[in-house]
Amino acid sequence: MSEQRRIRVLLAKPGLDGHDRGLKVMASFLRDVGMEIVYLGLFQPVENIVDSAVQEDVDIIGLSTLDGGHVPIAEDIMKLLGERGINIPVVMGGIIPDEDIPILNHIGVREVFGPGTPIKKITESLQRLASSNRH
Amino acid sequence: MSMTEGKRYSTSGIPLSGHYTPEDIKDMDYSQDLGNPGEYPFTRGIFPLGYRKYVWQNAQISGYGLPEEANAREKYLLQKGQISFEGRASINFAFDNVCQNGYNSDHPLGKYEVGTGGIFINCLQDAELLFDGFDLTNLNVGFIIDTPGPIILAIYLALADRWGVPWDRLRGIVCNSPWRRYYTGTTLCFPPEHALRVAADCIVWSAKNVPNFNTNSLNGYDSREGGATAAQEMTIAISPAIEVAQKCISMGGDVDEFIPNFNFFLSFHNNFFEEIAKIRAGRRLWAKIVREKLGAKKDKSCWMKVHLQTAGCTLTAQEPLNNIARVAIQCLGACISGVQSISTDSYDEAISLPSEETVRVALKTQKIIEHESGLPDVVDPLGGSYYVEYLTTEMEKTIQEYLDKIEAMGGFTKAIQSGYMETEVANAALKFQREVEGGQRVIVGVNKYVENEPVSVKPFRVNPRVREIETERLRRWHQERDNQKVREALEGIREAAIKDEILMPRYVEAARLGATLGEMMDVLKSVFGVYKPKNLLGTI
Predict the structure, then answer these.
(1) A21 to B181: CB separation less than 8 angstroms, yes or no
(2) Is B121 left (phi over 0), alpha (psi -120 to 50) or beta?
């Protein structure tokens, strides 16, 4: 894979949670720093997220949840990726209690960004994940 | 220092001077622009005696888990002093995402969110458990649900029938305000033109049949949480109010009969004086619109009744106790503005659903202002302030400009369909966050005075077996009812939807026979179709 290629990030809200302010702002910010965004937005079944990630050849899957469904959502998406042998790093953001972060990490979510995380920290983290996955 | 160096603006873009003088309000006419409290145009408040007669209603938003669990939380809040007007019990239910989208709890799309962000009412049995032990004649209940709202009200009416409570003794509100759903927090319900009809159907019918129940909550709050400015928020509340009122009139509704059942749901954000000016300007503008544009004759029709929630989006996950200060300031501002009902956010809401302890602190914050600040003694204490009157007038102008712009587009439904509203809100959110990232906007504990310490709040957990238990209850419910009669009642709804006939009594009949929310919504969706979210990002 060429080093020149821009990082491609898929952004989606799984389930029925309608709070999309944070994810929309994130999409714009990541575009500002030169990443390509595949914005799926609201109401995405996990199957659709995985299918789109493959079709769009993204480097990272970013999911946002604010209504408490983060653990079962993470379990379902990691299971599906595993069954299909797909190795794309998954990150999550939204209202997620600190004590759930180790649980999500254990399931396979690479990074969890809580409210108020500086954008610089998120972009650096995504760059690191994307490049380590390409080598 | 030059004049320009100190230039500051309110969040809605109104230029601010260092101080104000009589010169800034010289064009103001007391009786025409303000009037005494309780007098048209109600800038200073809708009641002459303000909180001396009616202290605001405590309306903590709550609801999670199984109906009996939500019932227990409401009893807890009641015991801690959550009351409505004339000593009634006050309940304000949030609904989970599954219910908001018109699905029953056992629907495959509801896998992650049953009972997590609110309650569900799938059928009459859920309503019975939810209100168990409450006297419906001594209750003010809020159903914070939009497109499926009329069906939730119908299930509540079926419950009242079963318990022998006359409908005119019921008080409360069903939000029934689908418009907000298309520009933020979208739901998988009908396209806007059909949603307008379903909402108006409920408003017109209920004005005659459930006369003391509010049937429309004009929502600015969600747009504000999504990023809108104060002026945009008020515009987004008022603009669809005009459109739905006109729709109700076209369906034969009498404006003086139905419009007193409108209520406004607004936010109080962090720019203290602008928020107060927003509410005062909104009251004045709405009164004029109702009288001049909608042709109402009665004073009561011109009241902008406000339920206000403190701004959840201003709460931080960092140093959560700081949120108590934020909520107290916002709540104080709300009281100064003279609103009718307040929901104070709990300090852990950037982390999880509120626990009993945190919601108690939020409720007691209201009680402290009521009893320990002297605020309820005098109505509209800032009336006549050079600054606040200047800001009120400027806010009114800014809101009017937005309203004119939306009217020029063909109205609020058109503004939704074109994507204008969604882009406006997304842009405002983006601008705000850029200012936070750039440090021009300070949020204490987030981008300045940052502490590197772990969050100390224990997150509240919802019972993880809710969906499983409710799925089993629904299975039994289906077995025990007369399915032939339910099918006929659902056909009745379909026919009324196709023929443009009144829907509300059809839902009530179906609910009485055991039809579920999901079944009734499926029938309506099959006639009206389902809206697809546009997912528009900011363009700035």
Answers:
(1) no
(2) beta
